[in-house]
Structures are given as C-alpha cells and as structure tokens.
Specification:
The complex is a heterodimer of chains A (105) and B (100).
Chain A lengths: L2 H11 L5 H20 L3 E4 L3 E8 L2 E4 L6 E4 L2 E8 L1 H7 L15
Antiparallel strand pairs in A: 1-2, 2-5, 3-4
Chain B lengths: L4 E2 L1 H12 L3 H20 L4 E3 L3 E8 L2 E4 L6 E4 L2 E8 L1 H11 L2
Antiparallel strand pairs in B: 2-3, 3-6, 4-5
The chains are: A alpha+beta (105), B alpha+beta (100).
Chain lengths: 105, 100
Amino acid sequence: MIKSELIQRIADENPHLFQRDVERIVSTIFDEIAGALSRGDRVELRGFGAFSVKSRDARMGRNPRTGEAVHVPEKRVPFFKTGKELRERLNGGRAGDEDEDDDEM
Amino acid sequence: MAGKTLTRSDLSEGVYREVGLSRNESAELVESVLRHISGALAQGETVKISSFGTFQARDKGRRIGRNPKTGEEVPIEPRRVLVFRPSHILKDRINAAGES
C-alpha cells in the first residue's frame, strides 16, 4: 500500500470529506511525526509503535572500493519500535513472548 | 537530547489546526489512518509512505536464544516482525536539524 492508496481508503470511508482534505490529513500526520523526530522528540502511538531518534557516534569508516579511511561524522537515525498490539496482530494474535521489556507500547 | 514525547493527541491537534475539522473528527481520522496502516501490515502488505519511509513485515526463522540472566538456551519460534526503513528525505531532515 502506498500513500495514495492509504489516502484513497480513508477517503472511501469518509465520503463527506474532500479528497484534498484527506490528503492533507495524511500528510499532516507524517509531517508531525517527522517534525517531532527532527527536534529530537519521541512519538508514542500506543498499540501501533514508537518512533525515536538514535545517535550514531562519529567513526572512521573505509571506502570499500579504494580502502581509503574516511571520517564518518556523528549522525542521528530514526528508529521505530513496533507496539505490542500490532506485533501480536502480525503474529496472528499470539503474543510475541520475548522482548517483553517494553513499556506496554 | 531528552525531548518531549508526542502522542495521538498531538497528531490530532495538528490535523485540527491544518485541516480545520472538529477536534473529535480529527482524532478519529488519526485513529483511522493508524488502523488502515496496521490492517495492511497484518495482511502482509508493505506500506510505503513517500518521503517518510516503508513499513514491512518480515518473517524470522526459528533460532536458539539464550536467557541472558540464567544462560539457559531457549528456542525462539518463527515469528513475523515489522521493519521500518526511513526514507532519505526523513533521514536528511532529522540530521539537518541536528547540525548544531
């Protein structure tokens, strides 16, 4: 499913809304999440999952073609942890029984 | 870097502000978007949101794990996990903001 199909599915369920409003709704949601992450904030959506940002330290990497050492600067990467309810749904309703240290996401 | 935590209500507030529906309806639509994404993933569909990222279910085989506390070997049964691959646009956006 791509974004336009998601928009279509939501639009089909909400015939009273203009298509362009549904587009804005969906875009706003992802834009809010991206904005939060770029500020270093977390986004917790219970039952679905949590988005956070992890820092990766600067390191010396190597150009695999030339073998030359290159400095890789520190960077931040977005990370998603699946929520408990969604994880169970993916597994046909069974609880995934390891990895239970999560905060009831 | 310990920032705030956003929740559904922040997302609904954004929708309310941007689109001008009622707060109630904004909240329902946020829920509906999450429900459709979860539903598609539960059906085994990959969900690709351009300029944000891709959510994909992956099947993991059975393997032997270890209880880190007791050292005891325990089998980890085959299971399906969700992987999120952020788009380049999202990664760039997060790093552009962090250059301080």
